[in-house]
Amino acid sequence: MPETECTTNGFGTRCTICGEDHWTFLREGRDLCRPGYEVRFRLSRCMACGHVMQTPQPSDAELRAAYSTDYAPYRVTWKEPGWPLWKILRHITTWRRVRRLKRYSRGSKLLDVGAGAGDFIDAAHRAGWDVRAVEYNEELVSAIRAELGFEVHVGELRPGLWEENSFDAIILWSVIEHVPDPLDTLRLACSYLRPGGQLFFQLPTLYGIERGQWFGEHWTLLDLPRHLNFFSKESLSRLCALAGMDLMIFKTPTLDAAWCYYASSVSYIAQAETSAKRVLRLVSVGMRAFILLPDLIFRAWRARGTEAFALAFKKEANEPNHLSHHSDV
Ligand SMILES: [Zn+2]
Predict the structure, then answer these.
(1) What residue ranges do the domains of the chain occupy?
(2) Class of domain 6-58
(3) Do domains 6-58 and 72-252+309-314 have the same CATH topology?
(4) In angstroms, what is the C-alpha Rg of the chain?
(5) 17 CA to middle of ligand 1, Å?
(6) What is the whole-number distance in angstroms between the Cα of residue 191 and the centre of ligand 1?
(7) Distance between CA atoms of 124 and 133, rounded to whole angstroms?
(8) Beta-bridge partner residues of 247
(9) String of b and e for 87-97 (b: at least 16 CB within 10 Å)?
(10) What's the CA-to-centroid distance between 50 and ligand 1, angstroms?
(11) How far is the CA of 19 from the centre of ligand 1 (A)?
(12) pLDDT tens sequence across 69-95
């Protein structure tokens, strides 16, 4: 169904940004980490503010099943022998993240929310940071504690884990799009940050989810049903303000746009049913690269790329906060 056809059937889902419940269908897809699992998940656009999110939101049981599969960020690099491509790419990602941390923060105490396999906290520790973390996956937490020796709590970010105002930097790499209540997560993160401290984000963008229609469900940014919300610079800025922070940086690197095109192409070609179809898809991807890839890179350069690096600062205690949740973005 094209986006121009309107529906209000969000199954009672309220918009994360404005609280309205009127939607237009945008696109849908399956969980590509679970071959043969045919349930389709749908993304819709809020008719009031333009925000894009899953409607309906998947159940807790659905999400638990989705995270218990062969989920790429959970693969542990330090246990993998040799240098397969995914391990090289993970190291490049970690190196880029540590470089951003060094560039924008001068503190010493760091909290990583959603530590995954622990690559980033290990690298941040080596760069001189005193690190703490929370991670949803119990098995990974046990491995990080036993083999890397860091203090990691199992589960989601919640009150009472550490003293308030005690961290110089908090990390949300590829997290905010996964949590059911992003504003609650931001408020909690903000409570642990010292005034003036920094919150680092990496996230798939609203602009990215509007592109790559031609790849269908193979557009890697979808990652359904794990990605629940897709933010723009404006909507993320609004949530940060509501949580007591100022969004200062929102960049969409061109490298991420190129990677998104490449990874989507690989998925699209690999999951063709026959060899003949694979060859056709390979030719098709190659031909379309001349149009789509330059378009993606141009948009990334204009801060409308597929993935964003964003940075917010916690307001000082005397700074006012005028926003209310349900006013316009
Ligand atoms: Zn809305």
Answers:
(1) 6-58, 72-252+309-314
(2) mainly beta
(3) no
(4) 20
(5) 5
(6) 25
(7) 12
(8) 312
(9) beebeebbeeb
(10) 6
(11) 6
(12) 566 677 777 777 777 777 888 889 999
Separation of CA 21 and ligand 1 centre (Å): 8
The neighbourhood of ligand 1, an ion, using CB within 5 A, equals 15, 17-18, 20, 46, 48-49, 51
Ligand 1 centroid, distance to 31 Cα (angstroms) = 25
Residue 225 alpha carbon to ligand 1 centre in Å: 20
Angle at 75 between CA 152 and CA 114, to 5 degrees: 35
CATH number of 72-252+309-314: 3.40.50.150
pLDDT tens-digit readout, 88-121: 888 899 999 999 999 998 889 999 999 888 899 9
What distance in angstroms lies between residue 176's CA and the mean position of ligand 1's atoms?
Answer: 17
Contact 227, 177 (CB under 8 A): yes
Q: How far is the CA of 9 from the centre of ligand 1 (A)?
A: 14
Q: How far apart are CA 200 and CA 217, in angstroms?
A: 29
Percent helix, percent strand, percent coil in the chain, to nearest 5: 40, 20, 40
What is the pTM (predicted TM-score) of this model?
Answer: 0.88
| Angstrom distance (rounded) from CA 151 to CA 168 | 17
SS3 state at 11: coil
Q: Residue 56: is the preceding peptide bond cis (ω within 30°)?
A: yes
Between the CA of 300 and the centroid of ligand 1 the distance, in Å, is 24
Phi then psi for residue 147, to 5 deg, are -100, -25
